[in-house]
Amino acid sequence: MGSCGNTEARYLKMRGSGDQPNPGTSQSQERHVWDSVKKAAFILGSGLFVFAAFRNTVTWHLQQFWGASGDFWQSQWGKAHSYFQGNEWVLFLLGTMVIPTMSFWILNGFLLIVDATGKPQLITRYRIQKGKNDPVEPAKLQQAIRTVAFNQVFLSLPMVVVMYPIMKWRGNPCGTELPTFHWVLLELCFLGLLEEVFFYYSHRLFHHPLLYRHIHKKHHEWTAPIGIISLYAHPVEHVVRDVCI
Ligand SMILES: [Zn+2]
Fold this sequence. Notes:
By secondary structure, the chain is an all-alpha fold. Helices cover 73% and strands 0% of the residues.
């Protein structure tokens, strides 16, 4: 979930002014795509190379750290488990819905105060698009808050409810035992990368004229977005891109 002003600007620039690109534009697009592929291969390849070279040393040190603190995390998890009397559904709901939603509103609540008042200058001076939404229009802000709350309560929450039995069937997500250190590391790296790729390409897909007109346009109504606009989207986009991906 993220705001995408820069990607958007770059993409619109790439698209040029018309829907039918001329041969020159198409050639430069191809070159641009090829350049991107080469850059991605270089960055990922270098990362993998460095990781492979230092794998044993790095994992040994991290394993030492995890070994030293592993008991700590396991005992905290055990405490949480017994506090909720082994009710794994409550733990799942807390971890996937309550804590992320509270974090979203607490952090954005602070930024909303800044956006609504235009103060303190210590923070507003770092605005990227100066003079826009500074301070933000109350009616526009209320409508955005309503949309984001609707997406969280009526779309994210039911999806989490539906996902629980499926995740339980595929392997218990809230069992008493924490996963091993290597597994955590692998999942963090792999899923982080996967999410970036899926998020980027699904976003590009939503810029297809048909999808843009009917779905994605809503997300870009705010041309100078604020924090909560990361979840300001059409219901279809929220379900597909913000929750599934
Ligand atoms: Zn977009």
